[in-house]
Amino acid sequence: MCKRTIVTMPGDGIGKVVLEETLRVLEAAGFKAEYVHADIGWKFWCNEGNPLPQRTLDILEKHKIALFGAITSKPKSEAAKELVPELADKGFVYFSPIVGLRQHFQLDICQRPCKTLKGNPLNFIRRGKGGTIEEPEVDVVVFRQNTEGLYGGVEWTDPPDQVYDALMTHPKFAKNFGWSPKDEVAISTRIFTKKYSERIIRSAFEYAKKFGYKKVTLCEKPNVIRETSGMMLAICRDMEKEYEGIWFNYTNIDAQMMWLTKNPETYGVIIAGNMFGDIVSDGFAGLIGGLGFACSANIGEEVAIFEPTHGSAPKYENLEPSIVNPIAMMMSACMMLDHIDEKTIATKIRNAVAKVVEEGKIRAYDMMKLSGCQEVLDQGAASTKEMTDAVIAAL
Ligand code: NAI
Ligand code: MG
């Protein structure tokens, strides 16, 4: 195996902890890599006025593959107050470095797998026939379009005249919104392009084919959002013809959120736009253990970044030893290994994690349904380090 170069971006808070522990697992599993650190997050905003410095973009541009912990983000006005005095009032405006990364490198394909691990006390259970208790096995991979739609950032309050005038040419705008003073109109757009809709849909079908999923579901709202969701559906209808043996279906996001607790085991690959993908993936993640387990990949044509979906959990930042669950980060690293064709090592790590969870002797506080604080260690919860040690022992 040749040595790979992997960029590591620990970021803030518990991002630093879970990434460090995950690197220990990668090493123990026999993954040979050179790690190049890159700066991202709150400290760089406060000290430099930029949470995503150019030097970080250059490192990513060069090495292409990154593991990312988590960052702390705050609203613009709060962020401005934390700048070092030399930078205050110099016109620096806070932006989310995650959105920044996705847009800069066009990381348009977001994958969020949600797979039940046997023995996880956080697994969703439901009542079956005759009052029995059932634990449905969830194995879903959400493909979320990561760069467009409602999170695309094209929005105005009191829109410029050209925008307002153009909207007034639409009969529904004139009738339903034209009565409001212009400066009291807020607009957030939902723009989809055919190119990036096709890319997310293609990658989902290809994934289903490669990994043997029999069902692909588009989760949007084409009956109401006719242009954007409608375009996604039309592309899916066209593309499904190329994939014999894969059953295509579509659901509406609202109904999907209801059904996902009713019959979560009947879904395989799910495709959605940016916001609905965000929502439906969090919904499924809740069924398999939540933030301590939810992993993700952001994949563009050149650069790919792998991260847990949780944030920096600032309230646990200074606990020594740390108590947070490192599994989401470890599973994100496995997605990276899949991506760079190190499948054997990925499988080895996944099996080790599954074994630790199933044995149930070592459990982080979230798996014991405790509320997080240092005392959980006295109540039998394992520290982050002990969780990692258990995974390493199980390798
Ligand atoms: P969060 O994900 O950091 O934490 C929410 C709660 O989930 C925590 O209090 C904790 O109870 C639990 N949790 C999270 N990760 C866990 C883990 N690995 N093990 C066990 N329990 C875990 O979200 P929150 O509190 O809304 O945001 C905190 C900061 O993180 C904010 O500044 C936010 O902007 C940022 N954030 C960053 C993200 C990223 O870097 N991708 C994603 C979400 C939030
Ligand atoms: Mg989310």
What report would you give on this structure?
- The two termini are 19 Å apart.
- It is globular and about 65 Å long.
- With 395 residues, it is α/β, with parallel strands linked by helices.
- The chain has a ten-stranded mixed beta sheet with strand order 2-1-3-14-13-4-7-12-10-11, sandwiched between helices.
- It has helices at 14-28, 42-48, 54-63, 76-81, 97-104, 161-168, 171-176, 194-211, 228-240, 253-262, 274-287, 327-339, 343-359, 384-394, and strands spanning 4-11, 33-37, 65-70, 109-115, 126-127, 133-134, 139-145, 155-157, 186-188, 215-220, 247-252, 269-272, 295-299, 304-308.
- The chain folds into three domains: 1-109 and 297-395, 3-Layer(aba) Sandwich (Isopropylmalate Dehydrogenase), CATH 3.40.718; 124-152 and 190-287, Isopropylmalate Dehydrogenase; 155-188, no CATH class.
- Residues 278, 282 line the site of magnesium ion.
Question: Based on CA inertia axes, which overall geometry fits?
Answer: globular
How far the N terminus sits from the C terminus, by CA atoms, comes to 19 Å
The CATH homologous superfamily of the largest domain is named Isopropylmalate Dehydrogenase
Class inferred from helices and paired strands: alpha/beta
- Unreliable stretches: none
Question: What is the count of structural domains?
Answer: 3
The largest beta-sheet arranges its strands as 2-1-3-14-13-4-7-12-10-11
CATH class of the largest domain: Alpha Beta
| CATH third-tier fold name of the largest domain | Isopropylmalate Dehydrogenase
Order of helices and strands: EHEHHEHHEEEEEHHEHEHEHEHEEHHH
Biggest sheet features:
10 strands, mixed
Would you tell me the overall average pLDDT?
96
Beta-strand share of residues: 15-25%
In DSSP terms (H or I, runs of 4 or more residues), the helix count works out at 14
